[in-house]
TrEMBL record:
InterPro entries: Olfactory_marker (IPR009103), Olfactory_marker_sf (IPR036727). It comes from the Eukaryota. GO terms for biological process: sensory perception of smell; signal transduction. Pfam families: Olfactory_mark. PANTHER family: OLFACTORY MARKER PROTEIN. This is Olfactory marker protein a. SUPFAM superfamilies: Olfactory marker protein.
Length: 166
């Protein structure tokens, strides 16, 4: 990355919770429970501590730059990308549509609240690069955010920075 890039050439995108899609997936779980049916073979049901988020790409040609995440308090957040082959209005989410690597960051309960968040840096770098690759063929991408060990959507701020290609 060129150190002379100005901030105006950077594109910072915010992960936004898709409450309608999250609710639709929760209704699917509830419906299966009420009727006693089993999930489809390979279907990935939304867990109670998960929510669907989306990232909208205003441009398609991007290079990953960095992550910005802050978590007030303690906890662990895991972000899993969903492949472009999922059409949420038409099909159920299948495990084969979940992408690797996943992004994970956390602050342990014994860590001071102002301590930096921990993450698996190599995985976060590869994950960001994978998102930039997928942006070339998509205008929106979906993600599962899992909140564990005390983290919640309300105490998380997560954005991703790209450098648009010229």
């Amino acid at each position: 990355m060129d150190a002379d890039k100005s901030s105006s050439e950077k594109l910072v995108l915010e992960f936004k919770e898709d409450t309608d899609l999250t609710e639709m997936m929760r209704r699917r779980v509830s419906s299966l429970q009420k009727t006693g049916q089993k999930r489809q073979d390979g279907e990935r049901l939304l867990l109670p501590h998960e929510a669907v988020h989306r990232l909208d790409f205003p441009v398609q040609e991007l290079n990953f730059s960095r992550w910005y995440f802050s978590l007030s308090g303690h906890g662990r957040v895991t972000i899993t990308g969903i492949s472009q082959h999922w059409t949420p209005d038409l099909t159920n989410l299948m495990t084969r549509q979940l992408l690797e690597p996943i992004g994970t960051f956390w602050r342990n309960a014994e860590d001071p609240e102002d301590s930096p968040l921990k993450c698996l840096e190599a995985d976060m770098q590869e994950f960001g690069e994978r998102i930039a690759e997928l942006a070339k063929v998509r205008k929106v991408m979906y993600f599962l955010f899992a909140y564990k060990d005390g983290s919640t959507a309300g105490n998380l701020d997560c954005t991703i920075e790209f450098i648009p290609e010229k």
